[in-house]
Design goal:
heterodimer; A: about 170 residues; alpha+beta; four-stranded antiparallel sheet; about 30% helix; elongated; B: about 400 residues; two-stranded antiparallel ribbon; 2 strands; binds FE2/S2 (inorganic) cluster
Chain lengths: ~170, ~400
């Protein structure tokens, strides 16, 4: 009888343990999901930018998913780069305007044709390649689709896919 | 059920049900404190009192603060500051308190290091204290977000980007922490929750633990002398107060604590009324703007030293150096191999090490505040960062060879 009782109590203990484990994992999953971005946040991720009015060597800053987007029309004397987005005869540098170090917005220095980040002194050239300081990688090109003279951000068109496959942007 | 007698007074009534007399004895009147300690040992109670001020002022701020990216800035800078009667008063207490609390924490920490109060038997005091330091850091950071000014936004951006793990590019993790692609509404409300509920609970829990860890090893003293607390306490109880090396926490030691707190609060309220601006960053009086970075981003003064350790290196190395800086002090009881529980000025090389550490941290703090453009200062920053990283191994080596010192010699 004594032995038997011990077995029954052990069983209760194990059952409790199993329930707690299942419940704990479930609760953790629910907690994780609660912290995920909301569907509405994810869905509002498209922006259209019209490039026809852009001026050479003047940086335009647009907004996409709350982030600044650099749009820079390159002048003829600026070096062409595999990261350029070509529309007709125009070349554009388009990137997420957040430093790849810790996410400050670099400022564009017109005369020197480069981006300078004030936070920790990082620098990028006009094609977005890091040329100085702590940034580990080039400015990120957002997913885009070319639509006439317009650019749709948030959708990946064939040009973007090509860059992605070639490892030009992350 | 236990047996209850009719109580003669409230104290007795409570004692029968809650054992409050035992509690008072254990926590106050027979909790023994060495006589030989100076005002630096009062910093613990000063911290507790400051935390109390922060909670109290926070409760009042909570009544008008709005955790919404459209409303937060005005609810703080307009409603609380100009409309709510004495709203400015609570805000200044809260702002000054948040800054000063770190000054006191640092004093408290370095007192512990100077006198070797983290050593054998007292490791848990040190570890729970470091836990408190981390919890206070998180509390300060989450609170810094709430006014939703420019520094709030960009500090949120930069600090959460630390979690991208360098070249590991854990952007999913960063977006998960923010609940958005950039710091936004989800970010503000969850940091609001952390600041007003979860982290304060953690802090309170850790404070209780921190006090608990003191009860058995007892607080250290100026000479690091090992005291037979039982013997010393018996002397005191027998009326031989002169001969005894200890005093009861309450009311005898507490009176000294309270005196120090009195002096401290004069300074504290001087700052609150006449000099609150040092705790308010001017950049944070511009509303948050995700399309414009302030010219120069720096954290509050108490984070500058660790921020500066991150800055001179590349992204990955910077992150690793930063992580080491954050965690290094946790391991102090295990890095210091010396058996000596004695003040630094009796420990030879350790004293040199201690002051190098202090000077290095001051240098890092000063460099962290400066813009990253000047090469000389950047170089000083780099040297200081390396010095900090080297100090751990150096301590390990010098304390390995440290000889046991003769106490009282
Ligand atoms: S965020 Fe740009 S250099 Fe650090």
């Amino acid at each position: 009888m004594k032995e038997n009782e011990k077995d029954r109590r052990d069983f209760m203990g194990m059952a409790l343990g199993a329930c707690a484990a299942v419940g704990g994992v479930g609760a953790l999953y629910a907690a994780k999901r609660t912290w995920d971005p909301l569907p509405s946040v994810k869905a509002a991720g498209f922006t259209t930018i019209d490039l026809s009015g852009a001026q050479e060597n003047v940086l335009n800053i647009e907004k996409w998913r709350g982030k600044p987007i650099f749009v820079l029309k390159k002048s003829a004397d600026m070096k062409a780069d595999e990261r350029d987005i070509v529309i007709g005869s125009d070349r554009f540098h388009v990137s997420i305007g957040l430093c790849t170090h810790l996410g400050c917005i670099p400022a564009y220095e017109k005369d020197q044709h480069k981006f300078k980040c004030a936070c920790h002194g990082g620098e990028f050239d006009a094609s977005g390649h890091q040329i100085f300081g702590p940034p580990p990688s080039p400015l990120v090109i957002p997913p885009f689709k070319i639509d006439g003279t317009k650019l749709v951000l948030g959708e990946s068109g064939p040009e973007y896919q090509k860059m992605l496959d070639a490892g030009i942007t992350a | 059920m236990a047996h209850f007698e009719k109580a003669k007074n409230l104290n007795e009534w409570l004692d029968q049900r809650l054992a409050i007399n035992t509690l008072k004895r254990v926590l106050n009147t027979e909790y023994w404190i060495p006589k030989d300690i100076n005002f630096l040992w009062a910093m613990g109670m000063v911290l507790a009192a400051t935390f109390g001020m922060l909670v109290l002022s926070g409760i009042f701020l909570l009544m008008y603060y709005k955790p919404d990216t459209n409303l937060a800035f005005d609810s703080v800078n307009y409603t609380i500051m100009s409309e709510v009667g004495y709203g400015w008063f609570w805000r200044h207490i809260h702002g000054v308190g948040a800054s000063i609390v770190f000054l006191i924490i640092y004093i408290h920490m370095f007192t512990g290091i100077y006198y070797g109060s983290y050593k054998k038997g007292r490791e848990l005091i040190w570890l729970s204290g470091m836990g408190l330091f981390v919890a206070f850091s998180a509390e300060a950071f989450s609170g810094y977000m709430l006014p939703w000014g420019q520094m709030s936004y960009w500090a949120g951006m930069v600090i959460t980007n630390l979690f991208s793990g360098g070249s590991l590019e854990l952007n999913g993790l960063v977006e998960w922490i923010r609940g958005d692609y950039v710091p936004g509404d989800a970010f503000l409300t969850r940091f609001f929750m952390l600041h007003v509920l979860l982290l304060p609970l953690v802090i309170i829990g850790l404070i209780v633990l921190h006090f608990g860890t003191l009860r058995i090893p007892h607080v250290n003293n100026q000479e690091g002398a090992e005291i037979d607390f039982k013997e010393a306490a018996d002397l005191w109880k027998a009326g031989k107060k002169k001969e005894s090396k200890v005093i009861p926490f309450s009311p005898v030691f507490l009176s000294k604590d309270i005196f120090v707190m009195g002096v401290y609060f004069i300074l504290f309220f001087y700052l609150v009324f006449y000099n609150f601006n040092f705790a308010m960053d001017p950049v944070n009086f511009d509303p948050a703007d995700g399309l414009k970075t302030p010219a120069h981003i720096y954290p509050e003064w108490y984070f500058l030293w660790s921020y500066e350790i991150l800055r001179p290196f590349g992204k990955d190395a910077g992150l690793i150096a930063f992580a080491i800086a954050q965690l290094a002090l946790f391991f102090l009881p295990f890095i210091d191999r010396s058996p000596n529980v004695a003040p630094a000025h009796k420990r030879g090389l350790f004293q040199v090490w201690f002051w190098v550490l202090i000077i290095d941290m001051i240098a890092l703090t000063a460099m962290g505040k400066l813009p990253p453009t000047d090469p000389t200062f950047a170089f000083i920053g780099l040297v200081s960062a390396w010095t900090f990283l080297a100090l751990g191994p150096i301590l390990f080596i010098i304390t390995m060879f440290e000889k046991k010192i003769e106490k009282g010699a």
